[in-house]
Each structure stands twice: as structure tokens, then as C-alpha cells.
Amino acid sequence: MTTVGFVGLGNMGGPMAANLAKAGFTVKVFDLVPALIAGVEGASGAGSARDAATGVDVFVSMLPAGRHVESLYIGADGVADVLGKETLVIDCSTIDPGTARKVAGALADRGITMLDAPVSGGTAGAQNGTLTFIVGGSQAGLDRGRPLFEAMGANIYHAGDSGSGQIAKVCNNMLLAICMAGTAEALALGVRNGLDPAKLSEIMQKSSGGNWCLNVYNPWPGVQDGVASSRGYSGGFLTDLMTKDLGLALETAVSSASSIPMGSLARNLFQTHALANGAGRLDFSSIQWLYAPDLKG
Amino acid sequence: MTTVGFVGLGNMGGPMAANLAKAGFTVKVFDLVPALIAGVEGASGAGSARDAATGVDVFVSMLPAGRHVESLYIGADGVADVLGKETLVIDCSTIDPGTARKVAGALADRGITMLDAPVSGGTAGAQNGTLTFIVGGSQAGLDRGRPLFEAMGANIYHAGDSGSGQIAKVCNNMLLAICMAGTAEALALGVRNGLDPAKLSEIMQKSSGGNWCLNVYNPWPGVQDGVASSRGYSGGFLTDLMTKDLGLALETAVSSASSIPMGSLARNLFQTHALANGAGRLDFSSIQWLYAPDLKG
Amino acid sequence: MTTVGFVGLGNMGGPMAANLAKAGFTVKVFDLVPALIAGVEGASGAGSARDAATGVDVFVSMLPAGRHVESLYIGADGVADVLGKETLVIDCSTIDPGTARKVAGALADRGITMLDAPVSGGTAGAQNGTLTFIVGGSQAGLDRGRPLFEAMGANIYHAGDSGSGQIAKVCNNMLLAICMAGTAEALALGVRNGLDPAKLSEIMQKSSGGNWCLNVYNPWPGVQDGVASSRGYSGGFLTDLMTKDLGLALETAVSSASSIPMGSLARNLFQTHALANGAGRLDFSSIQWLYAPDLKG
Amino acid sequence: MTTVGFVGLGNMGGPMAANLAKAGFTVKVFDLVPALIAGVEGASGAGSARDAATGVDVFVSMLPAGRHVESLYIGADGVADVLGKETLVIDCSTIDPGTARKVAGALADRGITMLDAPVSGGTAGAQNGTLTFIVGGSQAGLDRGRPLFEAMGANIYHAGDSGSGQIAKVCNNMLLAICMAGTAEALALGVRNGLDPAKLSEIMQKSSGGNWCLNVYNPWPGVQDGVASSRGYSGGFLTDLMTKDLGLALETAVSSASSIPMGSLARNLFQTHALANGAGRLDFSSIQWLYAPDLKG
């Protein structure tokens, strides 16, 4: 029977740990906020991160940013010292690829296998166990982790070696942001020139402008049912989170001397939108407002 | 039996007129280049545009730019004076919406129905009769024109009233350019950070970054068979033509006081690519070179 | 004694014509709005544009856009037919270079010399006779027009042959917009990171970031006295006018296959600002709000 | 008599340390490259960074990036442990403001005063003692350091408290990059439309487009004598260094949730230029090539 240590029990990590417990894993959880520890059904609480990392078959973390991950593993009193060589480490945080590679390298020096496995699918995916994992690290590591990924998610992709999961997620979300801003822009241009947004959407979906945003996450209110734009942009994938992911894209481009003009512009449009429209806590498809302020009402 | 006058017999117009003749229409064609007139199989030649426009049920034009369309219809010696009130006019040129509306309005003043019906699908689509038409104008006009559209194409969309066909095409192609530049950018960012372009493409296709370019027109050489990137970017949709369409998007945004930051940047990236890489006559997916100069070889 | 016909008597043209009269020229004025004709002190009214253009030594126009200029000179009932071959024509409108060259070419075909002479300096400059003229056309033409330019303005630059005045103005104002947006952006970045805007302005003025906007037209409220930012962005050079000039830059870039990524982005930022902040009738330095929404109050 | 420890003896640091010695300071220098230690005229060599930091009145560092500065001061075996409380610390490196504040804070916890004092002026300024220092930290600290700044430079600006020197430099250089790209863009637009670059430059200098780049560092070859563009863009401020500084601007914007669309675009244009034109080691005004590829020859 597999034992799992899990650190980081926020909106994402909490339900993920609970899903592991529900699937039959023996789960020991920890978070700096004590109330969160008690909230994970089916799991036992640990007294510290080091406690959660001691003597487990798999250790999973879900934290906000690279500095937290670095600190958890290789900071002062980091868990690296207590992790067993046979423990598989899975970091599900979305962080900069540089830190992911640095921490994985430090663990590898101690003989420990680490996977970076950022997720997409949001809090609903975490609760329903339908997350998508984009995994970086060895194939053997991924094979060992597969039962856990399957307990927490629905899709598992192997992007390449260590850090590749983070890079693939950064690339995907940058492209997503570009397509969303572009879709909102094209719709507003059409509407300002007299077109019906639903008709224009339908034409472009069937033509070469088709993309995930236009097709299943349309940003213009009233065009599609059940999407964020049709409920006042509440819930969904927050503008602030998209802006954070685009910040990772910028850092990745800077560190690799890559040119990302479209992604950079998208990042600044989402940031401008968050500032000018106070939209940080709305779904990122609310970028439509920046092009069509009348919608803001 | 329907008689058709057709003016503008270039790489697109010639095969389109021939397909009308093949479908049984009686076609009278004209072009300023005499050799092109003789080249349309099954059609008879006219001595002038006015000759081609006289006494026909439907009059079709396929010209390079708005100034040609304006001149053909309402310039000195324009065909407006010889078109019958019962003649249906179909302009298949891709031009600025402002000119489309101006010409349609001038014809409407004389009681003549005009459709703007720009196409996509390229020269192959013109030859094979598989073009897509995006039509602006009245529903009644579209219904009358349908037999001709079906003889020349495979898909027919009704975008709205006069000028809407041009606007919808401008919006679609702007979004296409944004997605293509964004896809090339995301792939280059991944590859520069060690990812395999095929694996990254596969992951993003299945995720929220999916779009027409990534899915069926991948710009990175070797990822997909049968696309322009896998044959040195020859053929396809030329960078110069995409740049022209993006110029129409800019003009449409200027005239309607619309904000199109992503589309404007895409236009300038394609223009920079054309200038810096001499890529005007290559497929527009060669924008990949701007992000990954090593591919240029 | 020199006689002058003057058409276009708005906020700019009216005071310019009055300054010509004050300087001793015999001025005959016309505008489509009768009340404006009566308002030009020292000038006599004409019954039509053709009347104003008949029998004068110099003919001056000051109109909103290229289509008005084209119509005035070479449209139906245009003044081209009544202008004498010895009449010097000066168009002071800010229009697209293409139209400027087209009209000048049409007049040249009739043996008439035309200058394009767009101005900067705003309504205050028009009233005080301190405008700057950027002139395109022959040196001989500029020499003949110099007494009029000196009566209306303080600076006269010769940019080159026909159309060059418009091009130089387009280039200058595009660069101005880029510097203004850049200055606002740098100031906001500094302030968000704890710097004092006045201190930061002073340092950059003395360093390599120095530019006209930063030095004499600072967009951050309170840094400089007597500028638009220190009076709530009232008056000055309206965002809508800057956006219009940037539209001319886009059209000039499209027609000449030029790449202008920075100018295009600036155009879209000013357009976004006009839409999102309702700032079209405020001075263009109010773009500062787009970067620092707290200033909007 | 003031004793100085100096670490980091590259193209900038070496001449700076020598100028301190020439001005009469007793200077003890260290670099990881032994040959550089011997090359500083008038200084004595130290055996390690800690040796250089021990027992001195002032300690100066000049390093490539934030990670080096962090390591030097507060890494394992960092100099923080050997610096006296009375030692004034001056870091002249150009690094991210976040690291500058972190290190200054760590030293402040030990009672040590630190200034961040990034420079501009290049290697020529370092050799000739004409650098510009933009200083962050206390006024008292700056007063104590003034004799050293005056021995190494010609201009000293106080930007604000700790980290402000880095921020002000980041802002200035971002604005410089925007103005340079904008100037190159405006000149190319004019030239492509028939204008003379020298005449256009002169007009814009006297108008509202005036800026440091246009006025004294003109990017178009042949317009000004003695600038990089007139010697094949050799020497000067390298594209790679400008790109690095723009990377700091992006990181600063990401960490402060600031919107910098123009600066981000400039960063990507310089990066694209470096990649596509192999121009990393040319002066940054060579960005002119990106707009006018014919100049590349």
C-alpha cells in the first residue's frame, strides 16, 4: 500500500489530497495554515513538512510560486534531508522552469527522483479529479506516479525531462492568452463594424480563425451558454492567475534569450485590464471589456 | 439559362469563371490582359468590362484592391451605367469594407443588388471549386447567387448586410495571423528551452492552446506532413497576401476607432518578416523563421 | 498686393486667415458653415469655394481629412478648374500623404504649383501666429509662400518634394506618441516601485531617456507647471487628434509596406485609452491614466 | 586616509578601481580571474573577496547579475560576515531591484549601510572617470560615498532609498530603448516614403519628436558624425546589454504588477534583432537594420 505525504492544501491542493485518500492511498498532509490540515477528508495530519516527508513512498507538493518550492525542498530545514532515496517526489505547483530544474537537480544529487507536474483544470478539476497533468522528468518516474495522477486527474502528458512540464505549461498558457486576446479583439472589431457576435463566431469557428477560446470559451457575453462570459465573468480562470502565468512566460523568455512579442503584449493587455478595469478576480475572458468597454456596463 | 459576366481573370478569377462555365452557366469574361481572356475554358470573351456587364443575369468581379473595384463599378466609364436593374452583382474581391459599402450603396441607388463575397481557399480552392465564400448583402441576393457560389465553392456563410462579408473575412484573417504568430512563438519558446516541437504541439493541441494553425497547419518543419512548413514554406498562403489582409484590418480599425493591438503587432511582425527574411513569396507560416532564425538555414 | 483665397475656417483655419488679413493680405474666405465666414476679422466673404479660388494669387485650404481635400480640388465642381496657373496653392490640412501627392499631381498636370504644409502648434499657435509649418513641394513654391507662412507661423521647415510635408509630420507625430506612451510607462513603473515622479523625471531628463515629452510636457500630474497634466489634462493636443494622426501613420505604413510595431502599439494604446477612459477630448498626455488608474480619481 | 576593497574587475570594474587608486584611495582588489587583479594600476591584490572586505572603510562591488551580488554578500562564505559595521558598502552592478533590496536589507540587519549605485557611461566612461551614478540608499550614505563617486564619475543622482538606484536605471534604460526603436522606426518610415534621413532628423529634433537618440545618437548611418551608426555600429552600448537591461525591466514589471507594453515590445524587438541579424555585439542603435534591412548590406 502506497503512503503519500502532501504539502500545500489550498483550493487546489486540498481536494487533490482528498482524492488521493479516496482512491485508497494513505495520505499524510501538512500546510502552514492548521485549519486546512483538518479539512482534508480521509487524510491524517502531519506536524510539519518534514514530518509529512518522512517515510513516505511518494511526496507531493502544491505551492504558489518558485520561492516556496525552493524553500520547501532545499531551504533551511528543507525536506530534502528527510526524503528517502526511494521516495518519488511530485511537485504540482506552477512555477518558473529555472527553479523546477534547480530543485530537481539538487534532489537528483541525493539520488531522489523528482517530477514537475503542473496542472490545468482549475478548482473544479481538482475537486472532480479531472485535472490535466503536464509532466517533466523521467519516463520511469512518470510510470511510478501514474496511479496518483490517475486518482487526481483525467489527462497525463509527458513533455520531456526535468522542467519540461513547467515549460510546456508556460508555452500552452501563453498561447492560450494570445488566442483569447486575439479572439476578443476580432469579435470587437466585427461588432463595432455592425456584425452579430454569434454569427461572426460561427463563421470564424468553421474557418481558419478557429481556436479553443472561440470554440468553447467564447468571451463575448451571450454567444455560448455555460461559459464565464455568460455569467458576468465570475469564476473560471482568474485574470490574476493568467497574468501570473504570463509573468512566468516573460521570465522564461528572458532567461533563454527568446523573443515573445505576442506573449509579452498579451501579458501587458491582461495586466492593463486588471489595473484599469479592476478585473483581477474575474475570469480572464473578461479581457473582452478592454476592447468593448460598453459591455462593462 | 443564367448568363454571367465575369471581370478579373487572374490566378483566382480565371479558374472561378471556368468552373461557372463547367457548371453550365453561359459566361462572358473580360480582363485587361487579353491572354487571360482566351485562357478561360468554356467562356466567351468580351471586348470590355462594360461589354461583359451588358445584358447578363449575374455580374461577378474578382480584383486585387478596393480602388480597382471602385473604378470598375463607379469610376469614369464604370459598369454601373450598363448593368440592368435585374442583374445580381457579386464582388468576390477581398477589399476594405468601406469601399465595399460605398460601391454597394451607389448600385443600390440605381436599384441594383450587390453582394460582397470574399473567398478563402487559395488558388487550389479556386481550381477545385472548393472555395469558402463569406457573403455580405441581403438574404434574397444570397439566395439568387447560391447556384453560382455552389459551382465555385464548398462553403457559403452569410455574415450580414452589405460589407459584412469583407468585415468577417478581415476579422477571421486577423485572428488567423494572431494565432499563427502566437503558435510559432510558443513553439520556439519551447524548443529553445529543450522541448521537442512535435511533443509540445501534441500537448497544446489537446489543451487550451489548440487552434487551427497548431492543429492542421503547424509552422514548425517536420511536425506535420503535407503542410507548407514541411516543404520549405513553398506555395500556400503567401506572407505578402497575409500582410495585405492585415493592412485591411488596420484600415478597418482606423475607420471604426477600434483598438486592435494584437492584430497590429501581428501585421508588423509579418511585415518585418517579409522585409528582413525576404519571405513575401513564402507561405505565411514561415513567420516561424522570425522566432527561430536557425531554421532559415 | 497679394490676394488670398482661404477655404476651411474652423478652430485652426479661422485664426490663420485672420492673421493673413492682419498682415496686410487681401483675403477672401469661404466655409460651408456661413457663420464661420462672418467671423474672420479683416477678410471678405466668398459665395463658394470656387468663388474664393477665382482670381487670387494664393489659395489656402485647411480641412479635416484627405477626402475633403480631394473633393475641394478635384471632385465634381472642384476648384482646380477655376484656379489660375499662376496661383500658388497651399494646403495646410493634415492628411494622408497619398492624397496629398494625388491632388498635387493633378494640379501639376494643369501647370499649378501646390504645397502641402501641415501645421503643428494647436489652436493657440493658430491664434498667436506661432504655428510650425512642415512644407512639401518645390523650393520655388516655398519661397513664394514664405510671406504667408511668416504671417501665420514662427517656424518653417522644408521636408522635400510634394507630399513630404505630410510624411514628415506623420513621422514626427508617431515618434511623439511613442515617446509620450514610453514616458508615461517609465514614470508609472518607477512610481509603482516607490520612486518620486519628479525625482525620476529629473534623473531621466539628464540621462539618455530625455525626450520632449519628459522634458517639457511631463504627463505625471504635479511634476511640471503649466502643462496639461497639471490642469487635469484639459486643453492641449486631444487624444482623439493624436489617434487620428496615428491612423495616418498606419495608413502610410500599409501603403509603403513599412514595419511600424512601436507606432502601431502606441496607436492602439491611445485608442484603448480613449475608449476605456473616455479620454478622447482630453490632452494626449492623459495616457498616463492607462498606466496608473489611481490618478483618474 | 580611506581604504577601499573592490571586487569585480572586468571592463568596467578594473578602470573604476584604478581611478580610485589614482585619486589617492588605498585600494585592495579581488576578482575570480587572477590576471585581472594584477591589471589594476596602483592597487594591491587581495587573496579572496572576504580578504578584500576585511578592515576597509568602503567596500565596492561591480558584478554581472543579481545572483553574483547575492552570492558575494550573503551566500555561503559571503562577505557579510567580515564587513565591519562602519564599512560603507557600494554595489555598482546593474541588477534587479528585488535582489538589491534583499541584500541591502540583510546588511542593514547587521547594521551595515549599503548603497545601490548602478552606472551608465560605458567602458569609456569607466576609463575616463566620467560615469553617471544613480544612487539608491540613505542621504548620509551617499554623502559618505561622494568622494569615491567623484573619483570615478562626473554625475551623481540620488533616486531615493534602497533599491531606487536600480529602479531609476531600469526606467531610464527602458525609456531609452523605446525612444531608440521609435526613432529608428520613424526614420525608416520617412525614408521609405522618399524623405532624406538628415532632413527628417533635423525637422523632428526641432519639433515634438525630439529625444536623446534622435538628437545625439542618431541610428541612421551618415546623419551624425562620431556616433555608432557612422562606424558600422561598432563599440557603443551593445544590443546584448540593452536586451539584458530590458530583461530587468520585464522582471521589475512582473514583480510589481506593472503594465509596460511599449517596453516589452522594445525588449522583443531588440531580442529579435539580436537573433535575426546576429547583432548582439553591435551597438544597440543597429536596431535600425530591423526596419531597413537594405542598410545591412
Explain this structure.
The structure is a homotetramer of 297-residue chains. With 297 residues, chain A is of the alpha/beta class. Chain A folds into two domains: 3-161, 3-Layer(aba) Sandwich (Rossmann fold); 167-296, N-(1-d-carboxylethyl)-l-norvaline Dehydrogenase, domain 2 (Orthogonal Bundle). Chain A has 13 helices and nine strands. Chain A has helices spanning 13-22, 34-38, 49-53, 66-74, 97-109, 122-128, 139-152, 164-192, 197-206, 212-216, 239-255, 261-277, 288-291; strands spanning 3-7, 26-30, 44-45, 58-61, 88-91, 113-116, 119-120, 131-136, 153-160. In chain A, the strands form two sheets. A six-stranded parallel β-sheet of chain A has the order 3-2-1-4-5-6, sandwiched between helices. In chain A, β5 (88-91), α5 and β6 form a beta-alpha-beta unit. The longest helix of chain A has 29 residues, at 164-192. The termini of chain A are far apart. The model of chain A has no long low-confidence stretch (mean pLDDT 96). Chains A and B meet through β9, α8, α9, α10 and α11 of A and β9, α8, α9, α10 and α11 of B.
